[in-house]
Amino acid sequence: xxxxAISVGVIMQRTxxxxxxxPFQWLPIEIVGxxxxxxxxxxxxxxxxxxxxxxxxGINVNLSSSEAEGYFLNIxxxxxxxxxxxxxxxxxxxxxxxPKAVTLSYNEAARLMDGGERVDTLxxxxxxxxxxxxxxxxYYHPEPKRKHKKPSFEGGEGVDKMARAEGDKHGx
Length: 172
What we know:
The protein is an alpha+beta fold.
């Protein structure tokens, strides 16, 4: 299994909502490229009542040959994107939305959502799409289409032959 890694950071934003059951909403707002540190660090970028932003850096996005079909589905979409899985956690007494996984595989994101995880998307840059396209072309080889035999319920000579064989078995 061939792999390649991209190190990114995710900026998560909390905005207030006019809702008595949910006072605020968390969403990823930006993917930051490999210029961020490679250790798993978090930095508060903004903290006021109307806008709280945190940068989570050092997240590795692994491109794996076993996920090539998922990458193909992503780059074939009208708007290829990043998939960000995150969970709410309390860190130093503050509830934050913490990105746990970032992927470019449509299939991997679907598995995460099937498992009950929260997954949001952000558009992928042209450079990332180009890199993903190259990786996908190297490792994605769709299965060739096979000819299908007509099932026996569609009639034809095979059905007559089967009926005669059944009749012979049962003495008809």
